[in-house]
Amino acid sequence: MSSNEDNNQAKSSTSVEDPRGELTAQLEELLNTLSNKFAGVSSEIFAKMDEMSRRLDNIEAQLSTQPQDNQGGSK
11-19: long-range contacts at Cβ-Cβ below 8 A with a sequence spacing of 24 or more? Predict the structure, then answer.
């Protein structure tokens, strides 16, 4: 009987550990997916910010090359 109880305990601990292992694997996969998506979104945001910075630099350069007369307007 003792060996029968040991087998039952081994089976129950294996059945408990297997779902935990599956859950852990699924959570790790989810975290990796989210991390990859976050990295992608972050790089897109930085790329757009760099593009906006270049555009602002171009606008600033264009405004600084315009003659000072045009800024006063007509009265």
Answer: none
